[in-house]
Specification:
single chain, 694 residues, alpha/beta, Rossmann fold, nine-stranded mixed beta sheet, six-stranded parallel beta sheet, 24 helices, 18 strands
Length: 694
Amino acid sequence: MNKEIEIPSVSVKYDSTGKSKKSNELGMREMQERAYEKRGEQYLLIKSPPASGKSRALMFIALDKTENQGLQQAIIVVPEKSIGKSFNDTKLSEYGFWSDWEVKPKWNLCNSPGEDGGTVKSVKAFLDSDDKNLVCTHATFRFAVEKFGIEVFDNRLIAIDEFHHVSANPDNVLGNQLEEFLARDKVHVVAMTGSYFRGDADAVMSPDDEAKFQTVTYTYYEQLNGYEYLKELDIGYYFYNGPYVDDILKVLDPNEKTILHIPNVNSRESTKDKIKEVEHILEELGDWQGTDSKTGFHLINLPDGRTLKVADLVDDDPIKRSKVQAGLRSAEMESDRDYVDIIIALGMAKEGFDWIWCEHALTVGYRASLTEIVQIIGRATRDAPGKERTRFTNLIAEPDASEDAVTDAVNDTLKAIAASLLMVQVLAPRFDFTPKTPTSGPIEGFDYGDAGYDPNKSNVGVNQETGQIQIEIAGLAEPKSEEAQRICKEDINELITAFTQDTRTVERGIFDSEVVPEEITQVAMGKIVATKYPDLPDEDQEAIRQHAIAAVNMTQQVKKTLNEQGSVDTGGSDVDEDEPKANRAFVDGVRQFVMDVTSLDVDFIDRINPFGEAYSILAKSMSEESLRQFGNIIAGKKARFTFEEAKELAVRALKFKKERGRLPEVTSNDPWEKRIAEGMNAYAQMVAEAKQNG
């Protein structure tokens, strides 16, 4: 592997406490115990990362619902048949629980062709039986509801795995059916997801429906920080020219256990011949020696004398593919680190696929779905002996001379950066922001460093038990309603997801040198909050906005601080064994940033461009010519104001007048006041022109 290639990356380090893998007296791990405590709720939403034990958590809850809460049956709904095996019979009593999980073979419709040849008929046969548990796919469940109606499911638990496949979009059948179930209010629902956002930006549920659910959140940070072996996760991207297969070995290290996702044949990165792409990759790796007779894995001799075993899930030949799939289902996948070395996939190996030894998730081409990215990263974040570091790399094509290609490249790059920003947010410790007031004091359970709590400045406290970081911010608005408090505690990442998916906001934040940060932090984020939570009062919306933008900017400033100090890897260098303990670097970065700021207040945070650090990282990996092209493309399509932007700024102008007793002025030296005034004037002009044109 070419070690000189630079892959800008963000490194998140963890303490390896082992806490997330320890079980209580009932055989429950930390996340499962947290979910079980809420087992009495009629509607329960479990947000927890891949490999945290959601399937078993559901078994515990379902057993209690049918044995102790009076529900007749439990129906487990999974997105595809391969995930159904996660709900096979499990001897929970061997680990301390009071019952075992059992599903009769004929009621696991992911394994069975179904009674009378049809899985939908089997659902009805199950409902008419005295048996307790059924497992089926989302599709089978949808068809069963359409055929038999929602009433036949009364007094039952409906548990939906990989819940992000559901949507509030009217075209989403399962989403509409869920809405009907909630309106009828005769079933219990447990929804589970490792990535509670959709790549298409559609809401998973309407705000009214979502409010009915009690949420159990187990963060990525808690999961990874509580591992036994894994200490570091790197997320980065690499830009290439020409066919990706010519550059693949610059980022594909044969010494790392790797899942390689080649691009969709319809994507810009694809050569349009997936079979030849795989053949080229195999040739680049070494000398092909045929395939293993038992597993179907390709055998590649490397220059150093080793034999590399490569599983090809791209080949459409049903005999070859079934042999490889069977090989990957072998028990040796978990017990033997050297059973397979590289897995090449297209649409598989994302959900419901476990390979604990995977050290590198390498993806060619931007995946339009953030959910898909989370699932791909989740394949590489399993804990395994000897596995201290893992990484995700996204290969993105640099633009060529054609205008269309340049525009596509701009869009893909923006999306990749946004995804990277979001993932750092998801993987970092959770922030707990509180207002700094004259009466503020230390909060129990938080460590304020060697110097202790200082009443005269903003403080940073760390809860070692939960991994939360408490930060005091002057002028911070507090959420008043219970719903707003819940959102600030549980749903900030969902807001940040919508924020990073707003292409115009991202491109202006990165490439528009004239952008005023408040346009992004106040207007763009404010609009997202107002759209997502329209029924909340203005003061709650503003409190949520402040908490969301504080989370984004705090993470970015910590990243900047660590980069400047050399504590965050920007290439492929080895980890310094003398570095501070895993998460100490992040915590120290927070403390350093807060200490360096004269006054940490809301106005200061609003004046930070959330995408400033993203640009500096991008500049390290892209040629000056490409950066210039990118900037020109965005400048060429940039409007001074859209109607919506002008309207938003006009609203800000009225707020400005209310606070200061005058309208903002275009001659002001304050860039934000000047921008508000320009937007106000532009809006007035647009309204006047609209009236004139009828």
